[in-house]
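Thread: Ribosomal RNA large subunit methyltransferase F, structure

OP (GT): Posting the sequence first so everyone is looking at the same thing. Length is 303 residues per the record. Can we get the structure tokens written out before standup tomorrow? I want them in the notebook alongside the other entries.
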Amino acid sequence: MAKKQNTASGEKIILHPRNAHRNRYDFATLIKTLPVLRSFAAQNEFNDLSIDFTNPDAVKVLNQALLKQYYGINHWDIPQGFLCPPIPGRADYIHYIADVLTEGNNGIIPIGSNVKVLDIGTGANCVYPLIGHKTYDWSFVGSEADYIALASAKKIVEDNSLTNVIDIRKQTTFANIFDGVIKPGEKFDMTMCNPPFHSSSKEVKEKSTRKWKNLGQDKGAELNFGGRNNELWYEGGEPRFLNKMITESKQFAGSSKWFSSLISKKTTLDGCYKSLDYYKAADVKTISMSQGQKVSRILVWRF
């Protein structure tokens, strides 16, 4: 049976110790970095400078400022309607898999372009490769099945002169995960993924409507962080997607030292553990992480 190690006692309520975003946003500094952010900033009820986080345009400009201030990314944009990810949570995933990679490396985080990571479904935003490379100098392959997202990710990489360390590849079918992306004989240190966790577009709309209602606002199914169908939902939801990923990971067991994925719903874990036992995973870790009130987990395994 696979060893299931939970690396946290209870659910975390703070970001990773190395995460540069553990403190409140310093909007004064961010505005100096990206002056256009000033037009979206205002004093809130606590007399602090902030933005309207329900405004997708404001969230995107905040991301541009954060990526420029902390990661030296001078050119970042996404097409309208695509997922605009919260940077602190994305950085957390990178830092936790860095901790995992210390195993077999004398407890030291491996740094440098010889460390190779595969980001499944990198999206139009390409955020994981950007943060991972700028933080630890790793090289990345990002896969993407959506043509518009693929073009956007490639443009971000090219505009920031990172084509030598970040390779964006077309996944030819939404049905596959590793198959068609990993080349024969290619080796990775880690694979990562932020999977779609809803089971249908209806579920996405219902959850969004409920969120706005809880916030006392009437915005229907509007998404402040955006997101296209393939970014937000997968037939069968997160459990089916993870089962597919685990099945394929067994087929590519020799291609990566570790495999990993975000898990949004705690109820998904039991099915994953059963699949990993079935495929005789040698080591399984569950890392809890959170940003504010949002709690998620990283499932990590190897064969």
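GT: Both are above now. Quick notes for whoever picks this up: The domain at 4-302 is CATH 3.40.50.150 (Rossmann fold). The mean pLDDT is 87.
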